[in-house]
Amino acid sequence: MLRRIGVPGTGHANVYRGFPASRDLFGASVSLEPAKTNPVLLHTIEALRLAARTHTAPVWRALADRLEGSRKHWSEVNLSRLDRYSAKGEVLAVPGVLLATGTLAHPVTVAAFHTSHAARVKVEAAGGKVLNLLELAKEHPRGSGVRILG
To answer: Where in the chain is the domain with CATH 3.100.10.10?
Structure first.
């Protein structure tokens, strides 16, 4: 992803944070800096892509692609949806945020990039387990049995 910087013709912002600038089709300066700046997110995306290549597991590449996209397109999954669309003992991955609205009636293992504290408490009270995406990739390296929800 490229970030547009500067104003065409003014000579301002030809270099942004040490990344060289170039021009797009309209003559505006474009930085070659990645649009994502959260180091934890960048590490998660890189590690998921590495797991996908190493273990030939397309589920990790799909999660990395979803996390790399715009944050407004990230999934915000509530526990009510988790309860409705999962079975007892299932392993789920949420490419976004797990929120606490609703209840969970059966134990599941769920991983998300971010989990609210209340959602973590409710999942553990139901007998389930909450992980981050990297922990899930280490527990299930081949990705078999992992379902993406959201």
So the answer is: 39-148
Q: In this structure, are residues 103 and 83 in contact, taking their beta carbons and an 8 Å threshold?
A: yes
- Which residues does residue 111 pair with via DSSP β-bridges, in sequence order? 93, 131
Q: Give me 79's structure tokens.
A: 């526990």
Is the predicted pLDDT of residue 8 greater than 80, yes or no?
A: no
How far does Cα 148 stand from its chain's mean position?
A: 11
What is the reported pTM? 0.76
Q: What is the pLDDT of residues 61-99, one digit of tens each?
A: 999 999 998 888 899 999 999 999 999 999 999 999 999
Per-residue DSSP letter, 71: G
Angle at 71 between CA 23 and CA 21, to 5 degrees: 15
Across the chain, which distance is largest between two alpha carbons, in Å? 61
Is 39-148 a CATH 3.100.10.10 domain? yes
Distances (CA, A) of 82 to 50, 97, 101, 103, 122: 28, 12, 10, 9, 12
